[in-house]
């Protein structure tokens, strides 16, 4: 078990020797750090596009599990990071600390080596959090060594995600919160996905540096499919029986999204459709992959068979990146079960759905009104019964929601937001 830590120390020493021999930073060279699958990190891909459009030379450090969109592939330089073996994922909770002792030092050493030896030396580093540990500490150290400006893009609070796995009272969660607060306190620029997050972190964590709220926005190519495009897509992906209304949601199959509520809502919708001929049959498609997928698939199949569903068909899918917006563009209703582990972030899936002009039914939580207004661009629910009723009301026209895209046609694009709020803060 000491081997990973020893290897990490040796890598750090080698990194420092290399760093001492290097020249000054390049003027407009940027590094974007994603301790995850880069192509499945849309917000960071948008940052990359905006930096490239602003004339920066961009390297991206992350995991390369999914192919990048062609425009990014041609525009950036890949910087590979060590990817933890899949065997380390999904292990029992009791082994979490042991796995962390192996994984974190290796991740930290490789990340530091790549950041400090990257040429030309970046004058700017943009990092997403979470994951906060070891990312924030290593990136801060690398920026100190290379004299690079640091931008932290706060997507959520990492310790709250850890609490879902270990429990809020776990000592490891308390340690993680302290480390995240300390490591994240200092940056040249802090970006936030919501006003609520900015307010809370400035008040409680006393962040130092310039700050800006940068709301998520859907890509420009997201939108409704024409009837012919929809028919072609569904012919290629026959999720469920034809001529049904299509309800979609996406999930990472983790405890912060209650798929059980969706299953209960499906059963209640089945009962509604049996009683009321105006309520149409539906196909529910759940996209994504994650640790709880298999168990929920068994539960869905057993429930549908036991109750003999005829009006509801429910399936799971893992789509190519370019098929996901087509699914949203073909759907009739989108569902979000995101509850926010911190209470101050917002679900990107809802942004994507609204960008495709898709009526959204979203699970209520404190920060949701920054994105979804009940009766304006979506329906808000707090129970399986309310979700079933909301889907039925949208599909029967009892609740009319406009197909006008993301919060209306006057909402600023990502690039317009970024140019106005982020670009002036960069060195």
From TrEMBL:
Keywords: Endoplasmic reticulum, Glycosyltransferase, Membrane, Signal, Transferase, Transmembrane, Transmembrane helix. It is found in: Endoplasmic reticulum membrane. It is a single-pass membrane protein. Its EC number is 2.4.1.142. One of its GO terms (molecular function) is chitobiosyldiphosphodolichol beta-mannosyltransferase activity. Pfam families: Glyco_trans_1_4. PANTHER family: BETA1,4 MANNOSYLTRANSFERASE, CHITOBIOSYLDIPHOSPHODOLICHOL BETA-MANNOSYLTRANSFERASE. This is Chitobiosyldiphosphodolichol beta-mannosyltransferase. It comes from Malassezia caprae. The lineage of its organism: Eukaryota, Fungi, Dikarya, Basidiomycota, Ustilaginomycotina.
